[in-house]
């Protein structure tokens, strides 16, 4: 429990009860520390004018509690779940794209070079694609 920058700790008994004695009047915050679970903090108001009057409310929803029964909001995930292996994610990576481009060039460039004829006429070089010209003649 936190009260005016004072921390008080109380252990949980086997019956799932916790008792803290000599708590002064005022507003206190109950925070539960548990490995693997997350609990919402609870604000407890202890009245100085009316001895024995206690009001508790969840801090996140501001819902007033009739009984102080705390249930975990969620299980804590300390580690990220690893994504399963995917061939597409490997191919979409920069390294996969570079390897794919290089493999494509290894097979496509020789086929393109077969269709290129270089004609030297003085200082000018003309490139003719025979396959393109054959399609035009048809």
UniProtKB/TrEMBL annotation:
Statement: the UniProt record of this protein carries the keyword Iron: no
Main location: membrane
Claim: Membrane is one of the keywords in the record: yes
Entry-linked PANTHER family: ER MEMBRANE PROTEIN COMPLEX SUBUNIT 7 (PTHR13605:SF4)
Name of the molecule in the record: ER membrane protein complex subunit 7 beta-sandwich domain-containing protein
InterPro entries: Beta_sandwich_EMC7, EMC7
ER membrane protein complex subunit 7 beta-sandwich domain span: 21-98
Compartments where located: Membrane
Keywords on record: Membrane, Signal, Transmembrane, Transmembrane helix
Lipid bilayer topology: Single-pass membrane protein
Superkingdom per UniProt: Eukaryota
Record GO cellular component, one term: EMC complex
Organism: Miscanthus lutarioriparius
Transmembrane segments: 90-109
């Amino acid at each position: 429990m936190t009260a005016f920058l004072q921390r008080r700790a109380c252990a949980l008994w086997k019956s799932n009860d916790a008792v803290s004695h000599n708590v002064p009047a005022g507003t206190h915050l109950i925070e539960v520390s548990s490995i693997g679970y997350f609990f919402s903090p609870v604000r407890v108001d202890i009245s100085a004018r009316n001895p024995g009057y206690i009001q508790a409310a969840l801090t996140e929803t501001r819902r007033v509690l009739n009984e102080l029964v705390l249930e975990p909001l969620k299980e804590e995930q300390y580690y990220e779940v690893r994504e399963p292996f995917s061939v597409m994610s490997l191919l979409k990576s920069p390294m996969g794209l570079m390897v794919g481009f290089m493999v494509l060039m290894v097979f496509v460039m020789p086929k393109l070079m077969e269709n290129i004829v270089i004609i030297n006429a003085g200082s000018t070089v003309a490139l003719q694609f025979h396959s393109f010209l054959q399609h035009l003649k048809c």
